[in-house]
Amino acid sequence: MSLTKSKNLLTWIVFLLCYNLFYAQNNEVLIDLREVDSLNKLYYGKHSEDAYIAHHKNLRESIKMQYPKGIASAYKSLMWYHGVNKNSNLDSVLHYADLFESKVATFNTKSDSLLIKFVELPQYYLNKGQLLSNAFGLPEQGLESYFKVYPLIPKGDTKLSIAYNISIAEIYYQKFQYDKALRVLTPLLKDTIGIGSFTKKRLLKNISANYVQKDMAEKSYPLHKEILNLAIKDNDINEIWWIKNRLTNDYFRLGNPKKAIDSALVVRKYCLENNDHQLIFNNTVYLSTFYHAIGNLKKAIAYRKEAIQYSSGLETKKDVYDRLAIYYTENKKYTNAIDIYKKKNSIIDSIRSNEKKAVTNYIESNVKLLKEKQKSQQMQFNVELLEEKNKKQKLYLFSISIALMTIITLLSSILLYRKYRKGEKVIEVLKTNEKKLLEEKITLRENQLEASAIAVTQRLETLNTIKEELDFIKQPKIPKLEEAKTKINDLIRSASDMSIITKRIESEYPTMTTKLIERYPNLSDTQIRYCLLTKLNLSIKETASILNVTPDTVKVARSRLKKKLDIPPEMSFKLFLDQLAKE
Predict the structure, then answer these.
(1) Are 578 and 538 in contact (CB under 8 A)?
(2) Which residue, 139, 147, 141, 129, is CA-closest to 79?
(3) Can you tell me where the transmembrane regions are (predicted)?
(4) What is the Cα–Cα distance from 326 to 340, expressed in whole angstroms?
């Protein structure tokens, strides 16, 4: 064989080997991408251990292959997982939400339009808002996420539009604004054709829940019956028993306590047999209320005591203790009532302690957050700079390794590789520090959210309710009872302290108090307090609770203040204070 033929043959062999290697590598990538998409579709929305493993596998493989679609999907799935599993964690939810939104921000609106459509941004923001408002009790932050949904809803997408409005109505429900929630939800009933059973049941449940809170059983009952029919049609066992339990309360509110008790006992039997703790708590509370209504205090007390072991959260347990103390008082078991009130007071003290801690952390967090923002921005710049340098080094290393096979090329490659590894280590250190800063930032944000959740008026109403109940117990005169009354009076005076409210207004509207004093020197301290509470947009009832006066006193005081401040009749007191703050 000639030398020329041998060279040609060798060239073809090398070409075929390179082609086969290239094809095999690309074929393997295609298989991996299909597997990533398949796993994401299979496990999205689930919160089992298998789902957790699958999400992390998708994330690792997608990062390795630089597959943006898989990376974004994994972040979104992990956010939902950490929000709905039994060990839900707010830090993890916010962490993966931030990673997802940062990744989506890198997509180009035109060239990545299909990718943006795939990640379903409207549904993502709905899910995030539901986790924040429903799972973690942060309605304001949930509402902020919902606001990002509206501009993204495609025209004619009835299902997504209904889901958005339901989410907004749930915020109103949490804020006890039931009429506003109904104004949002009721018009949606005409668009329920073709939206699916799940969405329709969710809509009906939200509407009925608001009617229940308004004590309008004649409205909630037909809605609950319609939900029950849908649940039976879907063979949704949990939904069937949930709605049957709700119907027991409708029977009671419609004036049929016997039917309510009989139905509730049937639900109770199912709960005990199936170990449904969440449902049995509601069921037990209902039974206690029903038996109390028919005068059977013994059973009412027994079921209310049983509800304590199924209650979750301090607020829920506090309400159970409150009702149990009332039952003991009606049964003339004053010692038991006092003991229950002590336990309730202990819970209230715990809630107040958490609130004070949140206020302290909020102040410290604001100072620390300002310092950390600048540090985080500088670190991010350094990371991006090093990553850009490493990309260039990687490209240069790859080009040299392919083009040159000599000793000089090998030595150069080793040198560049060492530099690359050194840069990678620096990046790892910087990313580790950035992660720590992110965790601290999330903690700061959580503290800020906790601080904003202080419900002064609710505490005062609770304390006043306790005080009224204790005042009701007049005979016999028990020293410990009198001591408890004194403590509660002290708590009411302490909770009515205006210093925190004043600081809050001054932080947003500096020198508000000073302006009032300078312009109206004849105002008393009490009148200035009325101005500040009105500026906070508190209602007459809430103002009365804080100042420990009657609502009529507040009305009279506001009317006199309007005259004293020469406020025109057509202008509201609140608008006048807003204009004064802007001056």
Answers:
(1) no
(2) 129
(3) 395-417
(4) 9
pLDDT tens digit sequence for 423-447: 777 777 777 776 666 556 534 433 4
Amino acid identity for residue 482 in this structure: E
Buried b (16+ CB within 10 A) or exposed e, 128-151: bbbbbbbebbbbebbbebbebbee
Contact by Cβ (8 Å): 95, 450: no
Q: Which tokens hold the place of 145?
A: 């996420």
Q: How far is CA 465 from CA 162, 348, 373, 469, 528, in A?
A: 39, 13, 45, 6, 27
The residue range of the domain holding 533 is: 496-583
Query: What is the pLDDT, as a whole number, of residue 181?
Result: 92
Mention every residue, 6+ apart, whose C-beta is less than 8 A from residue 517: 523, 528
Asked, for residue 358, whether it belongs to a domain, the answer is: no
Cβ atoms of 208 and 178 within 8 Å: the answer is no
Of 454, 477, 512, the residue at which a domain comes to its end is 454
**Residues 515, 575 within the same domain:** yes
State which residues of the chain have pLDDT below 70: 1-33, 110-112, 313-314, 351, 353-384, 396-399, 401, 403-404, 434-461, 463, 467, 470, 472-478, 481, 490-511
Q: With respect to residue 52, please indicate whether it lies within any of the assigned structural domains.
A: no
C-beta separation of 32 from 61 below 8 A? yes
Q: Which residue, chain included where needed, has tokens 């009872």?
A: 481
> Structure pTM?
0.53
The answer to whether position 237 is within a domain reads no
